[in-house]
Specification:
By secondary structure, this protein is mainly β. The protein is built from no helices and 8 strands. It has one domain.
Length: about 130
C-alpha cells in the first residue's frame, strides 16, 4: 500500500513496541499515520492467533480508520490482512487472508484479500466459509 497522495507527500512513520496481536506479548511494529486519509497502519511480522485457535506466523497489515476520515468510515473500524501458507490457520491456499471490522472490533467480512492500489485499501475477494 502506498500512503503518498502526491509526489512530495510524507506521512509520519515510527517503530513502536506494542502488543499488536493481543496475545499479551509486545511486538516491534512499524506504524504509519496517513494524515490525508486519516488511517493508522500497523505492520509487523511474527506470530498471531488464528480464528481456529491455532497459531500462525507471517506478515500482518492492520489499518484503523481515524476520526473524520474522508471515506466517512467509523473511527476505530478498519481491516487486517495476513499472509498465510496453505493449511495455516485453515487457509485453503497460500495468499492474503483477512477481515474488515467495525468500530467495536467485530469482523464484518472475511476471506481472501486483494489490494486496491488506487484507494490504498483491501478488497475481500472471496468470502470464507
Amino acid at each position: 500500500m502506498n500512503t503518498a497522495n502526491s509526489p512530495g507527500d510524507t506521512d509520519s512513520f515510527w517503530v513502536q513496541q506494542i502488543d499488536v496481536n493481543g496475545d499479551g506479548t509486545v511486538e516491534s511494529a512499524n506504524l504509519i499515520w496517513d494524515d490525508e486519509d486519516r488511517i493508522l497502519y500497523f505492520y509487523y511480522e511474527g506470530g498471531f492467533k488464528c480464528k481456529n485457535g491455532k497459531t500462525g506466523s507471517g506478515a500482518v497489515l492492520i489499518g484503523v480508520n481515524g476520526k473524520d476520515n474522508p471515506r466517512n468510515r467509523p473511527a476505530g473500524s478498519g481491516f487486517y490482512a495476513v499472509s498465510l501458507d496453505k493449511d495455516e490457520c485453515g487457509a485453503e491456499e497460500a495468499g492474503l487472508w483477512g477481515c474488515r471490522f467495525d468500530a467495536a472490533g467485530n469482523p464484518t467480512a472475511c476471506g481472501t484479500v486483494g489490494i486496491d492500489d488506487k484507494y490504498d485499501d483491501i478488497i475481500i475477494l472471496t468470502a470464507s466459509k
